[in-house]
Design a protein that fits this description.
single chain; 69 residues; mainly alpha; 3 helices; 78% helix
């Protein structure tokens, strides 16, 4: 459960920065940290779908993929 709390705390910080209109340069480090934390959690859980989702996020943050919303 501790991993989930860490991720939720990080998401809260990201949402707060977004509400404050923070520039991408402030959001990007938080997003990268979120992906690292999610990746570690997915590895511990051993869930292939979660690992694939994290890999997709990692690729997007590294500029290897285009994220479509």
């Amino acid at each position: 459960m501790e991993e989930a709390e860490v991720l939720l705390d990080r998401l809260g910080r990201i949402e707060a920065l977004d509400r404050e209109g923070a520039p991408p340069s402030a959001l990007l480090p938080e997003l990268r940290a979120l992906v690292r934390e999610a990746e570690a959690w997915a590895r511990r859980e051993g869930d292939p779908a979660a690992e694939a989702a994290v890999a997709s996020c990692t690729a997007a943050l590294e500029g290897d993929a285009i994220v479509r919303t």
